[in-house]
């Protein structure tokens, strides 16, 4: 098996926190004077005239925001790091219960609730130490630690040659908690931050901005964390108490939970002129890329009033029809699962309710040319477990995993075909397609064991096995086999997005070793099982590899480039690497002006699509 490693030229030094962050930053102040985009075709979407969008606007801010967290002592850091962190943290606005906007009853209620919460958390932590899956010292250590916002920086240093076809912006989402966790915290709980690298005729810029969710805006104003963290805090009796205190704050008007609770930190998709930042606990948020390469949150996006429920973070964009397919799940009441789609112009279909006996963790799904493929697996939600002192996210060993296959345009779920697949939990599905000669739907995903290891602490070592699952629509039977012969943890990645839902030969997947760090990526031949590895180098780790097709009609399936953020932990430097997807040779390295934490999922938006961005 071929293996490719890189030796990069030394890049210029970066700091953990950029010294340019101040209230008087010209880059920051100019950002908020932008009322509309000034791309040459920004007032139209194709040939369609834009109509006003239905969004919930976020509160505007007039400065760059940095995290109030302090650096973990376990991280190798420059001597000036503590002072830098303190300096930047001091820029965050602080509020107290003496807020003049509060009436005397509200101030009294706030003081009592805060005191109860502090005593409760202190008591609980003495009795029950945090598990690793909820311990902030573990979950946000090292390069998982948050960074402040970075106003756009232009003319970044480039080593090598940028491919001419890369014109547009690479955006990647991630979790970046604004405030120090009060109690438990899971990596997935952090506030959403989008990192953007803009390519424009040889010039490269970088910026990163928080997605201004309802949760983020209110916590920024309050100066601390008050919304419950879905994974890190909602465990056992303390989780129940946190929910009660949160509801009490809402009843007294100390915060507003009605405009969404989500963090928008997981997925990104560009659809119908909108870059959408998503997490499955809320509606998407519309983020705009400005002409300068900066980022602005337009607001919570409900597709012009059509979307009434949450949407998972991995909707699927059909490369031929340009339709967007999505799911929504509910952990409290039926229907626990709904399926819907959006036409290329943004018009939503009626919801299709998919009957499930219990709420199930469904982070991802798949599409083929004619079907949607929905996993109903063994990780489920059981809120009563909190009463017994446990986690509401449970691995149900007695439940049999199954996949449901439904026509994309079905008006109800009566024709859905459920096929059982033994001992299978795929957190992500990379692709699926139909093979008419065998009446099978082929699904490519990474099967994870233990299934709930991301959410609950285990002594058993996590394994994520790239698997081929065949669902026979004629017999109702299934098979599952590992795609490759060696044991590699392969998580986070993609196939050529121009072939999504069609048979693909190659997948580009992160080598999550040592877990949860990513030491490189693998180009996997799904038909032969051949693996070619690209390793970032000693002490260097990255994230999800994004495959960008070259765009030429003559290019093969792997004709294109892989882009990935890479961090040198020893030298505390971050960069964007661009690798030729055919031969896995490094083409170019962009030196970034500040540290980029390890994150989640991303996408690439071409200059042509940037010109079609909606204004709201």
Automatic annotation (TrEMBL):
One of its GO terms (cellular component) is chloroplast stroma. Residues 17-41 are annotated as: Disordered. Binds 1 Fe(2+) ion per subunit. GO terms for biological process: carotene catabolic process. Residues 22-41 have a biased composition (Low complexity). GO terms for molecular function: carotenoid dioxygenase activity; metal ion binding. It comes from the Eukaryota. Keywords: Dioxygenase, Iron, Metal-binding, Oxidoreductase. Fe cation binds at residues 314, 363, 428, 601. It holds the Pfam family RPE65. InterPro entries: Carotenoid_Oase. Its cofactor is Fe(2+). PANTHER family: 9-CIS-EPOXYCAROTENOID DIOXYGENASE NCED9, CHLOROPLASTIC (PTHR10543:SF95), BETA-CAROTENE DIOXYGENASE (PTHR10543). Belongs to the carotenoid oxygenase family. This is 9-cis-epoxycarotenoid dioxygenase. It comes from Brassica carinata (Ethiopian mustard).
